[in-house]
Amino acid sequence: MPSENGVNPNANASLPVTCHLTRPGGYRQTDSFKAHDLAVSGMALHPFRDVVATVSDDTTWKMWSVPDGELLLTGRGHTMWIGGCDFHPDGTKLATGSGDTSVKIWDFSAGECVHTFNDHSHPVWSVAWHHSGDFLASSSMDNSSKLFDLNSERCRCTFRGHSDSVNSLTFLPYSNILCTCSADKTISMWDIRTGLCAQTFYGHVNAINNVNFNTQGSAIVSCDAYGIVKMWDVRQVVEIASYDFEPHPANSATFDTSGSCLAISSNDGTVKMLEVEKNKVTELAGHDDGVQAAVFSRNGEMLISASSDTTVKIWS
Length: 316
Known about the structure:
The protein has one helix at residues 19-22, and strands at residues 29-34, 40-45, 51-56, 60-65, 70-76, 82-87, 93-98, 103-107, 112-117, 124-129, 135-140, 144-149, 154-160, 166-171, 177-182, 186-191, 196-202, 208-213, 219-224, 228-233, 238-244, 250-255, 261-266, 270-275, 280-285, 291-296, 303-307, 311-315. The chain is mainly β. The chain is globular and about 50 Å long.
């Protein structure tokens, strides 16, 4: 199992603020391209390059350079929709989780799927790599999350405790703590070395769709099926703030690198940009259907959004 927690180099670092906060008028749409034949259901940012991977209801994943929208790779092999993806920490592989209940590992140099895990009994919503790159976590409609060992190519642990679908998961940066959120309206923190739940966060009254940490690892953002977005203090295990974007579901929420701005992907076709300190909200409108995911570029110069309207849009 993983060794002791690593050191988060961003814990006390001064990180770039998104230009949405520093540029007059904030982000504006600058590029758009059709990414898939059906809804784009998820997206991940490459760890080093201006590249994103998108996954879709059309059963494929694709890799694109941004902002120009050049198609770099296409992956086929899943037999049902793909719910989520994540780049390996060294950027050489992609993990995907699908409605066909499988988790697949794709190697870019080999140009193919190099391993498939079939341990879940129901569709897989999301996947997340451990910072070591040796372990991969997945969450499923079977009410569980699993940890896979890429060296032994087997499931090392199953995390049971949620009473409904586990819709999203992510690792606390540079740690052995896995965070999951569920349709049972709770967020749980798990120690992957023991398989035990260390903390549970209560406060949502609807199914939670997505959960993410800030880069510093001090705060969590979660969003639910009625458009409620909450921020939580990781150390104190308390709610810091709550924001109401009802009645449209909030499909995902993510911090910019500095932690000073949130991008909330809404089912009303907009991205809500929330300035945390000012409690100010602006909307990026342009998609024709629900926005499923949004990611900030690491320097904050771009926001990339993906939607059920089959497109990816660039805001800068």
